[in-house]
Every structure is written in structure tokens, then in C-alpha cells.
Amino acid sequence: MSDLEGFGFVMPHWFYWGWLAVMPLMMMAWDRWARARGGEPVEPGMTPGELQAEEDDPLIYLKFEGNWFTRVIDWICDKSGEFVAFWTINAVVFYFFEVIMRYIFNQPTVWVHEASFLLLGMQYVLAGAFAMLHGAHVRVDVVYNLLPVRGRVGMDIFTSMFFFVFALVLMITSWTFFENSYSMSETTVETWGIQYWPVKGMMLLGSTLLLLAGVSKFIKDVVLFMRLGQERVA
After folding, report:
1. What is the pLDDT of residue 233?
2. How far apart are CA 156 and CA 222, in angstroms?
3. For the chain, which residues score pLDDT lower than 70?
4. Which residues pair with 187 in a beta bridge?
5. How far is CA 36 from the centre of its chain?
């Protein structure tokens, strides 16, 4: 830390990683306690993406909610998105601290910008499974919306093979990045020099969660496609 002397307060690396791990858990527990105390439902309602999806095609989301396996995956994906959502608070606090130090005390930091863009990058990767679970990803609906309900489910099943190729390649590549980074104890090139392998570890975790979310959706789509077919025959 001798190279950082004279820069004022510099967040220790161990505190940064520890705080990112513990802070969302405290916020989730506090939010749950506040909801229970106020008499509100502990579990949140549907997201805007889910509401729009149900408005477009209510049958898709009312026919099959999944089995125990998909419910476990969906719970993990949902909680992981809720977990990283609280990281945004840290970015706001970090940049507020930077503005105060830079423009009032004339002591710009050497760690706030790096801490924030690493945080938001990890958040972006880890939130992919949550976005897929709640139908928040952007998609082209020009042809999709012209299909009947069962045709839309069938289209989802067909296009899932492209998703699985992407997710598997992303996961394998992320593992390579993480393994190489960890073996060489890679750090960032900025003055703060924080460890880089946890960031690439989050890439691996995020791609794994995304793949699991895709598996859950695929199972539900297949069962729904079969049920809609049986109803059509009946």
C-alpha cells in the first residue's frame, strides 16, 4: 500500500469483496423484515416484463409453472438477481464520495471509478439469469407475435438450441478466463491494483446461472407445448 500513500482514504481490497458479499444479504433480510412488519407480501409481485408477457399471451404463463427442479432453479435465479440489484446502491455511494472528495476537498480518489465499473460489470453478467426468468431480455417479435400460442412455445423450443450454444461457449470461455486469472494472481492495471480473478469468477457464475435459467425455461416450454397439443386434440 506504500504506492498509495498520499491519496487519502483507499478502500482495502478485502473490505471491497467482503462488503459486496455481505451487504446485499443484510439488505435482503432488512427488506423481508420491513415487508413482514408492514403487512405487505414477503414475496414481490410480477415484474413489468412478466406483466407485459402475460398481457401478450396469458396462456403461456398460466398453464405450467414448473416442477420441483425448475422451481429450485427459478428461485436461485430470482434471488441472485435480487442480490446483485443492491450493488447499485454501492455505486451511487462510491460516486457521491468521489464528487465530494474531488470538488470540495480537491483530493480525487484512485479507486472509486474502478470499484464502480467492476461492480456494474459483474452485476450485468450475474443479472442475466434473473432477466431471462422474468422475460426482461429484448427480443424481435415481428414473426413471433403472428404465431398462435402453441406456435410461440414451439418457436421458443426451436430457438433454445441457439441459446444453449451461446451459453455453453460463454461458460467454457469464462472458465478459461477465470482459471488463467487465478493461476497468475491477476490484478487490474490501475493504481488500485485490485484482484481481477473474482471478476472473471463472476463471469463463470453468471454464465452458469444463465444456462440453468435456460434449462428451466426449456423444460417448462416442452411440457407446455405437449399440454397445449393435448388440449387441441381434445
Report:
1. 59
2. 9
3. 1-7, 40-65, 231-234
4. 195
5. 25
SS3 (DSSP) at 139: coil
| Amino acid code (one letter) for 7 | F
pLDDT tens readout for residues 142-162 = 788 888 888 988 999 999 999
Q: Which residue has the cell 487519502?
A: 8
Would you call 84 helix, strand, or coil by DSSP?
Answer: helix
**Cβ atoms of residues 134 and 61 within 8 Å:** no
Q: What is the distance between the alpha carbons of residues 130 and 111, in angstroms, rounded to a whole number?
A: 29
CB atoms within 10 A of CB 31: 14
Query: Which amino acid appears at position 214 of this protein?
Result: G
3-state SS of the chain: helix, strand, coil percent to 5? 75, 0, 25
**C-alpha cell recorded at residue 153:** 412455445
Q: Which residues pair with 195 in a beta bridge?
A: 187
Cα-based angle 189, 198, 217 (whole degrees, multiple of 5):
130
Q: What is the pLDDT of residues 19-50, one digit of tens each?
A: 999 999 999 999 999 988 877 665 655 555 55
Rounded to whole angstroms, the Cα distance separating 163 from 158 reads: 10
**Helix boundaries (H) for the chain:** 13-37, 48-56, 58-62, 68-85, 87-103, 112-126, 128-133, 149-183, 197-233
Report the length, in residues, of the chain: 234
| Opening angle at CA 85, ends 84 and 91, nearest 5 | 90
What is the reported pTM?
0.86
State CA 103 to chain mean position distance.
Answer: 34
Within 13 Å and on the Cβ side, how many CA atoms surround 170?
A: 20
